Amino acid sequence: IARAASPAMPSDEALNLHYQNPAYFEGEESQGYKNYADMKKALQPFFARRLREIKQALPSGKTLLDFGCAAGYFLEMARHDGWQIAGVELSQDMAAKASDGLGISVPQSLDHQAANDFDVVTLWEVIEHVPNPVAQLERLKSKLRPGGVLMLSTPNNGHWQAIREPDNWTVYRPPSHLIYFTADTLADTLRRAGFE
Question: In 3D, which of 135, 90, 139, 99 has the Cα closest to residue 116?
Fold first, then answer.
């Protein structure tokens, strides 16, 4: 029996180059966004709902780190909602836009985010871009204070369309999306990273 070789996970260098390409946020719709700036208004209701969910989960929370914050639109809303904010964004252009728009330093790496006592860490549509999600989640866990909360969203690979019509499931887009989750595999990944 012969098997086709599975594609190798892209190197850190290749992934970094992929997200430094301005076309990812401005034009390369098959991998990223036609124009991310145009999405700000459309994202606001989702971000407002997510902020309400965070408040319900942790009513006394004050500090929030958004990992993969892009241009900082969620952080902008969180600040207006009373949060002390911080962000990390791999794309140099987006990190600069977030820094300029928010008036804070937004590093490109978690290694350069000095604070380690956040009440909340968020990853909105980010975990599927990470080549080693357990290791990344462990690193993010170290940024949370005891009792802190991690909140994330990711496409559900258990969705009927992913199962019945995989050719039409637009979430399959390597090298942008590397790992695909169902509710069960996401729960297992979080448990393996030390979350309850």
Answer: 139
